[in-house]
Amino acid sequence: MTPRPAADIVWHAPRISLTFSAPADGPVSVLSLRPSDSPAPTPVLPSGHGEQPLVEISAFGHGRFPGSYRHVDTIIGRDLRLVSHDESEKDGCHELRIVQESIVQEDGSRGIRVTSVFQAHASAAAVRTWTEVTTDAELVLDAVSSFATGSFLADAQASSVDAIVLTHADNDWIAENRWKSEPLRAAGLIDVGRHLHHNQPPRTRIALGNRGSWSSGEKVPTAALAASDGGYAFAWQIEHNGPWLAEIGENGHGAYVLLSGPTDQEHQWNVRLAPGETFRSAPVSVAVATGDATDALRALTDQRRAIRVPRSADAAQPVVFNDYMNTLMGDPTTEKLLPLIDAAAEAGADYFCIDAGWYADGHWWDGVGAWEPSTVRFPGGITEVTDYIRSRGMTPGLWLEPEVIGVRSPLAETLPDQAFFQRQGVRIAEHGRHLLDLRHPAARAHLDAVVDRLVDEYGVGFIKMDENTMTGPGTDLDGLAPGHGLLEHARALLSWIDGVQSRHPALLIENCSSGAMRMDYALLSRLHMQSTSDQQDPVAYASIAAAAPAAILPEQAGNWAYPQAGMTDEERTFALVNGVLGRMYLSGYLNRMSPIEVAAVREAVTAHKRVLSDIRDRHPEWPLGLPAWDDDWVSLGLRNGDHAYVSVWRRAGSETSRLHLPWAQGRELSAVAFFPADASGWTWTWDAASAVLAVTASGNEPSARVLEVHAG
C-alpha cells in the first residue's frame, strides 16, 4: 500500500458531526463526536493522531498486544490504514463509509478490508454504525467491534477517566431497568499509576453484556458516559437480539468505549471466513448531547424513532387488555373470558389478548409447539371467543411462544433434529423446551403455518410474542462455533418476523421475553410494543414503569395496569398510574368491580388515550433523576415543548418530594391533576426561581398521581 499524507475526515449530518483522524502511519479513529449545533471541541491530540482505533479486530493467530481480557490493542486494528471514504444521502438518511485495509509494516496488504458504515437521520443527534470485514485469505474472526472511540466528550480535560460518570442498568425477571450512575473510577477503572510502570496501558476494564438468547437478561443494552460537570454526554444502544458486549477502559489518553456483538472470549463466538466472504457486525447506535446522561438518552429516543421500520398499522396504538397478569394467569376458558371481554370493552380497551394456556387441556409448559386451541377450554371452539371479542368492538389477540417446542410436544419427534439447537449432536433442552433453529426451512415453515392459521382462521390481529427459554451459548450444527450458530438464528428470526409482517400488514406483535429479557432495537425496530415486566406488585412496578423510557420508546413501553375489585382508592389509582404514561397493558378482574371502580378504570383509559394522541412527539424526563429500585419517590414526565404529563409515585418515606423541571425555570407554571381528575390528598407548589415543583401526598399508604403541567 502506498503511504499517503495524514488527513482528517469531517462528516456533517443534519444533527451530528463527526471528525476522524486518518494518519499515514496509523488507523482511523474518532477525534470528535458532537451535536452539529455545538461548538467544535478542543482537540484531544494533534491532527492526524488518534487515541483509540475506530475498529478493533482479533482473529485466530492475530491477537492483542499487550495481551489482556480487553478487546482493544488488537494487532489487526493497529495495522489498519485508510483506503477511502465516501458520503451519500438517500431518502433523508445520510451515510458515510470509511474503508481501511490491514498491512504488515512494509510487506504490503494482509488482505483484510474493513468498512465502517455510519448512517444518520435528520431527526436525531445520533448515528447507527457497524463494521464489515472482508478477507482475501481464510481467516477465523473471534471479535469484531462495531464501534470504538475515546472521543465522546468535549475536550482533553473532560476525557480524563476521573471526570466521567457511567450510567447503566441491571436487568432481571420482575426487576427490570434498575439504573445507576457511578464514576468510572468507582465502577472499576482503578488508577494503577501508569507513570511508574513505563506508561503501559492498564489491563482493567468495565465489561457490560449479556449471554445467550436474552439480549437484556442481565444488563440493558443501553448506557451512557457523561462528563461529571454535566456538560456533555454520549449514549449508546446495541441493536442485536442476542449476546453483546460494551467495554469501557482506559488507555494512554483517557477513557475509551468499545461496542460489539458476540465475541469468542465472552460468548463462544467465532466465524471462519473463506476468501471473498464478508462478515457484518451487530449494528449499534450512538447519540450525543450537551448535558447529562438523561439528555443523551433523550437523543437516543429520537434515534429509536428514526430507525423503526414504518408500518401504518402501528399508528393505531390501541389499548390492549390482556387476561394474564394477576387475573387468569394462564388458565383461560370460554366461561372465564366472556365476562372479562364485556368488562374490557366497557372500560375502553381496543384489543383483547388471550394469554398463555389457550392451546392445552391442562398443564401446558413442556407440551407447547402445535398451537392448536384446546377443545376442553373452548368447547364451542376458540372462534366463539374471538368472534365475541370482535362483536364487542375489539380486535382479538393470542399469546404465542414461537421459537420453542416442548419436550412432550409431538413436534419434538416429527420435526428433524436439524431444526433444533444442538451441541455435539445432542439436542438442547432447557426448562422443558427445545429451541427451534430458524435457519432451517422446516422450522420456518412450521411457524409460518401457525401464524397464518391464527390470523386467517381465528381473525387474530395481535400476537404477544414471548420467549421464556434462555438456551445457552447457541448451536454448533455443521461445525459452527455455538455463538455464531446463535447469531445466525437471531438474524433468521428477524427475517422471519419481516416475512410475517409483510404477509399480514395489519398484525401487531408485542415483544415479550419473561417480561423484558429481550429488550433490544433489533426486535423493537420491527415490533409494536415491549412488555416491560412480569412484576405482579404494582408498588414495585412503579420504578420499572418510570425507568423504561430510558431503554425503549414511551410509545412502546407496555406497562401493566391491573386494578382489582376491593382495592382502596389509592391502591387502585397507583396500579392504574403505572400504565398512563407509556402503553397501558390493562388487566385485572374488571368484571368483579363495582360501578365506581369501573368508572375509575374508564377514567384512566380515557386519560391514557389522550396521552397517546401525541406520545410520539414527546421525550422522557425524570424530575427526580433516573429511579433506583428502592427509591421512596419516583417520577416520569413526557414532555413536548412547554407541556408535560408527569407521573409521580410515593411508595414510602416523607410526605413531600421536590420535582426538578429545569425547562420551566423562571416562568409561571400551571399544574393540574390529570389522573385522577380529583387530586384529593395531594397538593403542590411551584418555585420558578429554583424550577422545583414541591409535591405533597398525605396519608400512609403508597399513592400516585399524574399531573399535567404547562409553562408560559
Please supply descriptive tags for the structure shown above.
TIM Barrel; single chain; Chondroitinase Ac, Chain A, domain 3; 3 domains; 712 residues; globular; 20% helix; ten-stranded antiparallel sheet; alpha+beta; Beta-galactosidase, Chain A, domain 5
Task: Give a written overview of the molecule.
- The chain is of the alpha+beta class.
- It folds into three domains: 7-307, alpha-galactosidase from lactobacil brevis (Beta-galactosidase, Chain A, domain 5), CATH 2.70.98; 312-531, Alpha-Beta Barrel (TIM Barrel), CATH 3.20.20; 621-711, Chondroitinase Ac, Chain A, domain 3 (Sandwich).
- It is built from 13 helices and 39 strands.
- Strands 5, 6, 7, 8, 10, 11, 13, 14, 18 and 19 form a ten-stranded antiparallel beta sheet that branches.
- Helix 6 (334-347) packs parallel to helix 7 (382-391), helix 11 runs parallel beside helix 12 and helix 12 packs parallel to helix 13.
- The longest helix has 22 residues, at 482-503.
- The radius of gyration is 26 Å and the shape is globular.
